UniProtKB/TrEMBL annotation:
Location in or out of the cell: Cytoplasm
Biased composition range(s): Polar residues: 11-25
Function in brief: Catalyzes the NAD(+)-dependent oxidation of formate to carbon dioxide. Formate oxidation is the final step in the methanol oxidation pathway in methylotrophic microorganisms. Has a role in the detoxification of exogenous formate in non-methylotrophic organisms.
Entry EC no(s): 1.17.1.9
Catalytic function, reaction form: formate + NAD(+) = CO2 + NADH
Domain annotation D-isomer specific 2-hydroxyacid dehydrogenase NAD-binding: ranges: 157-328
Basic and acidic residues: bias regions: 1-10
Protein name (record): Formate dehydrogenase
Organism: Mixia osmundae (strain CBS 9802 / IAM 14324 / JCM 22182 / KY 12970)
PROSITE patterns: D_2_HYDROXYACID_DH_1 (PS00065), D_2_HYDROXYACID_DH_3 (PS00671)
Keyword DNA repair: no
Length: 398
């Protein structure tokens, strides 16, 4: 756990600091308490100033907020009623948290957070916040849209290659001093000639499709309630399928790139996996809970799926006994070099390049709020009691 308090104040104490924020009429905004729930960087965060997303570097916000007379509380301690997160949220005005180590702002947490006005996601994906509860309280929810979409798209293509070419067990074999070409070649294929589809053809989905084109896939498809403009679909050479069963039934490789919300939770389950071809692969870097955890493990362990990979888990950090850690295709034959899994911790969108972009974006959202300036509309998820985007189940403005 790491906790840093830059300026202590009582919840209602107005700021007298010189640099405190002013609204457009010059009225001082009282000193704000900003609570940031981030992942601990440990020695890596302490020694590398580019690890901006860690508790140690605190998104580079420390000096800025202090100079304006605000309070910043930073922690990675987020689970349970006694956690620093749950204790400090009670009088926090602004919550910053990150999908990589999400402080889960449930309805219950939001009801306790009497002063909360703004939730900022340092990254992309705000499903760790109960958005309906936020809307009821007219809490603004903003994320740094686009900040890590290239980072994730690259990870998706890498994971596809790892799975389809059976890279992970091949590499592990070498590390262990073994040499058995046939053992890894029996599950190795090319991406060329495969049918690939994305659920969600937004910023990440489109970038994945573009990066796949040079591999000469047989066909690219997308499933999304938002239709791509014709010229983009033509440019990426992707066709839309609106029926999920038909879509999944055509694919060799499924990539999931939509937000987690009521309609996508558990969308890939025992029944829908059954619509997919035997021997197909799934790459999910969107959110773990879009897939039913047991159904995925069962499909890999039984050999229906040749592999599943990604970096997102239904609960993060993932418990040690989470079945995705150890699932293995039957061709693994109990071997320690498992076929069929290319799972990593949630890090695809937190490369050092991405951390810079989402740290800068978080600061801009904060500055806009503290200076009563409008937010960039593309960053808004909820505002004024309503959804400001169609991406989370279309919201009320569909
Ligand atoms: P985006 O808003 O640009 O695109 C999302 C797309 O999903 C939209 O086109 C939307 O219409 C579509 N969609 C929503 N609900 C759908 C449904 N029920 N069926 C089909 N399509 C649906 O978002 P993005 O920037 O591409 O990010 C997508 C998601 O990826 C994020 O919400 C987040 O959960 C995840 N993400 C993960 C990481 C990571 O580090 N692993 C990083 C960034 C984003």
């Amino acid at each position: 756990m790491s906790l840093r308090i830059l300026e202590k104040r009582s919840p209602t104490q107005p700021s007298t600091s010189e640099g405190s924020s002013n609204d457009m009429n010059g009225t001082a905004l009282r000193a704000q308490k900003v609570l940031a729930v981030l992942y601990s960087g440990g020695k890596y965060g302490a020694r590398n100033p580019r690890m901006l997303g860690t508790t140690e570097q605190a998104l580079g916000l420390g000096d800025y907020l202090k100079s304006k007379g605000h309070t910043l509380v930073v922690t990675d301690d987020k689970e349970g009623a006694d956690s620093t997160f749950q204790k400090e949220i009670v009088d926090a005005d602004i919550l910053i948290t990150t999908p990589f180590h999400p402080g889960y702002a449930t309805r219950d947490v939001i009801s306790k957070a009497k002063n909360l006005k703004l939730c900022i996601t340092a990254g992309v994906g705000s499903d760790h916040i109960d958005l309906n509860a936020a809307n009821e309280r007219k809490i603004t929810v903003a994320e740094v849209s686009g900040s890590n979409v290239v980072s994730v798209a690259e990870h998706v293509v890498m994971t596809m290659l790892c799975l389809v070419r059976n890279f992970v067990p091949a590499h592990e074999q070498i590390r262990a001093g073994d040499w058995n070409v046939a053992k890894v070649a029996q599950d190795a294929y090319d991406i060329e000639g495969k049918v690939i589809g994305t659920i969600g053809a937004g910023r990440i989905g489109q970038r994945v499709l573009r990066r796949l084109q040079p591999f000469d896939p047989k066909q690219l498809y997308y499933y999304d309630y938002t239709e791509l403009p014709n010229e983009i679909a033509k440019d990426i050479k992707v066709e839309r399928i609106t029926d999920l069963k038909e879509f999944l039934g055509k694919l060799d490789i499924l990539t999931i790139n939509c937000p987690l919300h009521e309609q996508t939770k558990g969308m890939i389950n025992k029944e829908t996996i059954g619509w997919m071809k035997k021997g197909s692969w799934i790459v999910n870097t969107a959110r773990g809970a879009i897939c039913d955890a047991d159904a995925i493990a069962e499909a890999v362990n039984s050999g229906h799926l040749l592999g599943y990979g990604g970096d997102v888990w239904p609960v993060q950090p993932a418990p040690a006994n989470m079945p995705w850690r150890t699932m293995a295709h039957p061709n693994s034959e109990g071997d320690k070099f498992n076929v069929g899994s290319a799972m990593t911790p949630h890090y695809s969108g937190t490369t050092l390049d991405a951390q810079k972009r989402y740290a800068d974006g978080t600061k801009t959202i904060l500055e806009n709020y503290l200076n009563h300036k409008p937010q960039d509309p593309q960053n808004l998820i909820c505002e004024g009691g309503d959804y400001a985007t169609k991406a989370y189940g279309a919201g009320k403005r569909a």
